[in-house]
Design goal:
Family: Belongs to the GcvH family.
Function: The glycine cleavage system catalyzes the degradation of glycine. The H protein shuttles the methylamine group of glycine from the P protein to the T protein.
Order of helices and strands: EEEHEEEEEHHEH
Strand content: 35-45%
Cofactor: (R)-lipoate
Pfam families: GCV_H
Number of strands: 9
CATH architecture: Beta Barrel
CATH class: Mainly Beta
Helix content: 10-25%
Shape: globular
Keywords: Lipoyl
Number of domains: 1
Radius of gyration: 13 Å
Strand order of the largest sheet: 1-2-3-9-8-5
Largest sheet: 6 strands, antiparallel
Length: 124
C-alpha cells in the first residue's frame, strides 16, 4: 500500500499536498482500494468556499457512492480535467494523475495526519 511521506491525510481518507496557500487534494490508495473500480467523479463546487469536513463532491464506484470531504476549509479552484474521461486514473495513480481538486487554503492544517499517523489509523 502506497502512503507517501510529505503529504497530509485525513481520517476520511483524503490526502492533501500543500504548496504555500494552495493545495492539491485526492483520495488515498487505501480509499480507492476499498471503493473498487471508480466509474464517475462528481465535483460541482468549483469557485465555491467549502468548510473543513464538508462534502466537496462524490466518487462513484461499481459497488457504491462515497462523499468526498474537504480536508481544510478553502476555495475549490479547479477539478482534475482528466477525471471526466478517465475516472479510473484515481485507481491507477491516486497520488499522481488521479488527483481530484486544486484549492486555495483558508483554514488551518493543524488537524491533519502525517503519513505515520495515517498508517496507524488504517492498521498498516
Amino acid at each position: 500500500m502506497n502512503i507517501p511521506d510529505g503529504l497530509k491525510y485525513t481520517k476520511d481518507h483524503e490526502w492533501i499536498k500543500i504548496d504555500g496557500n494552495t493545495a492539491i487534494v485526492g483520495i488515498t490508495d487505501f480509499a480507492q482500494g476499498e471503493l473498487g473500480d471508480i466509474v464517475y467523479i462528481d465535483i460541482t463546487t468549483v469557485g465555491q468556499e467549502v468548510n473543513e469536513h464538508e462534502v466537496f463532491g462524490t466518487v462513484e464506484a461499481v459497488k457504491t457512492v462515497s462523499d468526498l470531504f474537504m480536508p481544510v476549509s478553502g476555495k475549490v479552484l479547479e477539478v482534475n480535467p482528466l477525471l471526466d474521461a478517465s475516472p479510473e486514473k484515481v485507481n491507477e495513480d491516486p497520488y499522481g494523475e488521479g488527483w481530484m481538486i486544486k484549492m486555495e487554503l483558508k483554514g488551518s492544517v493543524a488537524g491533519l495526519l502525517s503519513a505515520a499517523q495515517y498508517k496507524e489509523l488504517i492498521g498498516k
